[in-house]
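Proteins fold reproducibly. Take a tokenised chain:

. . .
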Amino acid sequence: MTFLDLLQRRIRRDGARPLLTCYDADGARTELSATTYGNWVAKSANLLAWTLDADTGDRIALPVAARHPAHWMTLVWVGACWTVGVEVVLAPDPDTVAVVTGPDLEFGDNAAQRLACSLHPLGLGFASPLPDDVTDWAEVVKGEDDDYVGSEPTPDDPVWEGRALAEVLDVAPTADRVLVDGRAPLDPLAVARAVLVAPLLGGGSAVTVLGGDPAAVATGEHAIVVGM
């Protein structure tokens, strides 16, 4: 089973129910149903496969995941990479075909294709123009198809710094609504597995908190706080 299989199964069974809710550093709340999250993932996966010309076996650097592992935009990128089967690395190197950052725009010296995420709670792009060599993900992804139309990885394909897809998806399922405190440094893969894979396997959902009081949010969201 692939990540796309898990996501599509959830969409068919319960697409309208929340899958991922994110409270950003300013307290803004973004709630994504399985259908909405799946739409962002499909568009981003098509961007990877057809615009960036990435394929299974290629490597994509996601500094945005290293710095903002619990933000919903980061988790859309993770889902897109797992859908296409490209290998996520956290730092750029000469072999990465693209680099995706947050608003910091810290790409390093890698000459690969450069994209940036605004981390806007409503999915908007940057308010100010970006450098000529940087693409605003929120602007270009809107034109991509709503259904992923590329190839998918096999369970043995590496999708996260040498880890195979089957290993990444080998997570205990949860039917609960879980909350991850995203204010402290976290392992990006652990976050993605806890708030994406486990709920998709078990029918649960997740909340991530990047600012404010996670305990209060947990109470309001009827969520169980989980450690990383």
Q: What stands out?
A: The mean pLDDT is 96. The chain is about 35% helix and 20% strand. Residues 34-51 form the longest helix (18 residues).
